[in-house]
Amino acid sequence: MGPNQFPWWKNLLVVLIILVGALYALPNLYGTDPAIQISANEVAPSPNQDTLKQIDAALQKANLNYTSAEWQPHGLLLRFNSTDTQFRAKEIIQETLGNSYIAALNLASSTPKWLHKINATPMKLGLDLRGGVHFLVQVDVDSVTRQHIENNLTNIGQSLRDERVRYSDMSRVGSNGIALQFRTQDALNAAKNLVTNRFQEFTWKVQPSTTGNFILQGTMSPAALHQISQDTLEQAMNTLRNRVNELGVSEAIVQQQGATRISIDLPGIQDTAQAENILGKTATLEFHMVHAVTAADGSTTPAGTTSYSLQGQNILLDNLVILRGSAITSAMSTTGDDGLPVVNIRLGGGGETLFTKTTAENIGQRLAILYVEVKSNVTEENGQKVIHYETERHVISAPVIQAALGNSFSIVGLKGYDEARTLALLLRAGALPAPITIIESRQVGPNLGKQNIHMGVISVEVGFILVVLFMALYYRGMGIIANLALTANLILIVAILSLLGATLTLPGIAGIVLTMGMAVDANVLIFERIREELRNQSGIQSSIYAGYDRAFTTIVDANLTTLIVAVVLFSLGSGTIKNFAVTLTVGLVTSMFTAITGTRAIVNLLYGNRLVRKISIGI
After folding, report:
1. CA 265 to CA 94: how far, in whole Å?
2. Of 368 and 330, the one with more pLDDT
3. Phi, psi at residue 502, to the nearest 5°?
4. Helix 222-246 crosses helix 141-162 at what angle (to 10 degrees)?
5. 529, 551 in Cβ contact below 8 A?
6. What is the CA radius of gyration of the chain?
7. DSSP designation for 200
8. pTM > 0.70: yes or no
């Protein structure tokens, strides 16, 4: 086989890759429909056929029609012909269903179902392209630090008691310190050796005392404080992503901004108030033992317990938290052996030891699941904004413990399958490690998104047309081959971004436009090398071979240096910078395939292994 001829399987592979790329890029040709996403609020039953009939009757009474109704894992999606109908229908639906349900405005993809079956979905569009809402939230990291120190106080006290080291007092000092008091020097020395080895996140120093006691003070190190802050923000971001995804509203774009803030973008959401409501429902779950269930007679609450209401009765819970929602790693609703709904739980987030011990000692007793929501409001005091927090608690359910509960157990005693599904959703979404406050909210209207998409598409089209015209006029036939490869390159970029689930923003479109110019740059190097060989009176076949062979190293070097820059941008940048780096990287990889392998396959089919007197390369 000659040097300018590919084996049949290589040609077939090139065609197959491009065809598969075209298939997975196809969903991006379909637009979006104005839609309303209806989901249950807290423990309300999931939308069902009765809910749909209720909505249908209300909309028909108002002379409004929806084009289709789709059942989704976490709710009901209604599609509409126009945004005007969508906005009017939203008000009617919310009024009809009341506060038990969330009716969120959305933009739903109109990609055919047969494409969804092969996981062919369109690219996710960023807030600047699709429209939606943006939030900036403040995370109360200080509360986590305080809780961490309180936990350490408990652990230090237990460790000292276990080692029979007597202390007279234990208290907090400042915002991140602990003070231990002892009556003897020996106790102080023993305690210092113990805590220095076991609690290394504190810096321990002996402090002078005027009361005759010996004082050992520990201060949390800056490195430990920073680690707590980062862990809190990362857990908060994961929880926010999970909750928004579980509610089936949108694919949230959540990223850290500064030391204590999180930026949240919800593309496609058009209702800021409902989005705030969704975020506000992210709360903590706590497990408490039930002390007693009594009639609502106003009797005195025993010490160490708190009274709540459940199904018209007073339920007294022990104040000790035996498990927090952050310990749950998985929760699935299903049907038990008796045909009743249950929720299967898997633990792994910490705190399982106390939970297992307590439940083993209380078989036959009731275990309460407490839903804890921290709400915040911002007031202005002395010219400065001050955040105030208010905690609300209510019991979701209080099932009976059937056996000692380990890392896997089931919650029973639920009222129905809807409650089981909703409870599993809340448990899966996890608990926020700290209260959050929305300090900024901004809505990007769909009209602005459409305008950005229109301008972005025009920029790609203009860049594409100019490059195509230049290559066709300057390199003639070979230029047309390069244009075919450029088209294939654009298709592959879109396909790969869609498969990766990447979010496309305006900087991402800029990366695609830049990639198109760099893609034909490889062909320019190849074609100029072929021209040079032809001017040196080399044969056509040898000139083609030398053009591709000798330009290859230069092309790889040029693309490699750009790829290094793209990796640096992705590693150190954030948000839109990362999106630019992703599209640039994908474009570099695909252009190497189309500009070298793709064009050579076509050139080999046209000119390879045959007698050729002239090639169309613009000379």
Report:
1. 24
2. 368
3. -70, 150
4. 120
5. yes
6. 32
7. T
8. no
